[in-house]
Amino acid sequence: MESSERFSVYMALDGPHLDGLIGSAGIIRFDWPEQKYYIQHYHGISGAHNVSLSPNGELALLGNFSQQIVLLDISNSQDMKIIARQATQYFEKCDYRLRANTHHLWYPDNKTFIGAIGDNLYRFHVDKLKKPEKLGPHGLFNAHEIRWDPNRRYILIGDLGPEDTDARQIAVFDLKEPDPEKRSSVINLPGTVWHCCVHPNKPVGYALTYSFATEQEDYVDWSPAYTREYIFEVDLPTAKIIRVWSCGSEFPIHLNSDVGVTDDNYLFVASGGSHTVVEINLDGFDESRVLNCKPSYWKRARLWRQRFKNLLGSMSRRPVLINTHLLLQTLQVTGWRILDGIYAARVSPQGNYIFAANRGYNVISVYDRWTFKKLYSELLPFRRDKYTKTPQYRLGRQGFHLGFHHSETRSRE
User: Fold this and answer.
1) How many domains does the chain have?
2) What are the tens digits of pLDDT across the range 211-255?
3) Domain residues for 308?
4) Staple 171 to which of 45, 157, 245, 302, CB 3.0 to 4.6 Å?
């Protein structure tokens, strides 16, 4: 028997590029069970990456790579408009395009939030964006995803890394430590972690390796690495690794994006490298299930222009003929597909459904969480607005994807 659960999913949209870090900025809201979606794009902002929803569902922060705090009014799904923008370089200098505030944490008052700017974490108020409180240095190269425990004391932080080295570390930030200079505890790891999550019921976090291959210490034009991956379970009060999950390179969990833990103790991982969502039972931290989210053939066939766009993007980053080792690693990660996979995946607030968005195929789907039965799948329309009339966009305006990235859900019960 299907549930009558009602919820909305919000996703950042970053445009048609293979590299989700160089595109434009937009947002999409999808309502279940109404099966309706609302799309908005924004000018003057680039590299949309993540949506952070206020607890009451009226405001959102559009995390991005253009060094801006972008505050949205999402109370009206028809007009998800910008109500405030603030340059982060007003607070700290920036010399790297990916050194940006991509993820945020909201307080229950719906007015206060935390973000990483430069070398530090800051606490902001929506009415006083120019006057934040500096909380202290995070100790990482470039703080990326930030998540906190249920009591909002410990913040687990992933590290995107700089342009010229592999960032094999995470940090745990203690908001109650009286000395701001001592609030962050850095943990060294055998792999780079971009994304993380925290258990909803206890001060335990999970940090997932994001493995990529490069040459000559060039961490801008990288490729996916066909290698073993890790998930580290972190005890936040002590900043210690307490358990490790790892898999062989053939397991389809590469280039993780959305990650989260359910109330009944399951970890869900969106695999951007493949077209899968992975479920791991945290009781034993061993058994897993893999949900294959590959769309039907006729939906996949519509994306021939996107395949060309991805090939162009790949060849623009590396000379293919002398980098066949990187090309072959990428194809093994993606299951020999040219289009990328699941960048947004969330379990519904009451735990009955799995929502998944296939970035490469421009398809959103809803599954029964328990049986993995597909209940809904839709190929979304391609982007239509003033921006698509530019010469650079014109070739693909009938076939380029929206660029789904990180997501968050909100119950509408």
Assistant:
1) 1
2) 988 877 777 777 788 999 999 999 999 999 999 999 999 999 999
3) 10-411
4) 157
Q: How many CB atoms lie within 10 A of CB 328?
A: 13
Within-domain flag for 82: yes
Distance linking the first and last C-alpha atoms of the chain? 18
pLDDT digits 0-9 by tens, 36-55: 999 999 999 999 999 999 99
| Structure tokens, 153 | 């004391």
Q: Are 53 and 29 in contact (CB under 8 A)?
A: no
The answer as to whether 79 is a domain residue is yes
In-domain check, residue 4: no
Q: How many CB atoms lie within 10 A of CB 398?
A: 11
Phi first, then psi: what are they for 305, rounded to 5°? -65, -35
Residue 271 belongs to some domain of the structure: yes
Q: Are 19 and 313 in contact (CB under 8 A)?
A: yes
* Cα-Cα-Cα-Cα dihedral sign, residues 384, 315, 100, 138: positive
What are the backbone angles phi and psi of residue 312, rounded to the nearest 5°? -60, -45
pTM: 0.92
Q: Which CATH number goes with the domain that contains 230? A: 2.130.10.10
Which tens digits make up the pLDDT trace of 71-96? 999 999 999 999 999 999 999 999 99
Radius of gyration of the chain (CA): 20
The per-residue pLDDT for 18 is 80
